[in-house]
Design goal:
2 strands, Arc Repressor Mutant, subunit A, about 70 residues, globular, about 50% helix
Amino acid sequence: MNAQFDYDLTPNQWEALKTLRVPAPRSRGLNRLVLDDLIALGLATMRDDLPVITPRGRKVLIRGSSRLWDVAA
């Protein structure tokens, strides 16, 4: 697995990242601490005072993580 996109995110971080895929109204209720963690990892950013997923965040979400793959197996 490519280490560049292998993140050990918490379940809350995964849920927040999935929420950011949709337009802004659903993403307004995100936990600020979780969002700050995603921003620090470069997986999300703020644009016009709204959280949005970054291209890296989208790749991480699509690829998943090895931990999530183990649960699915």
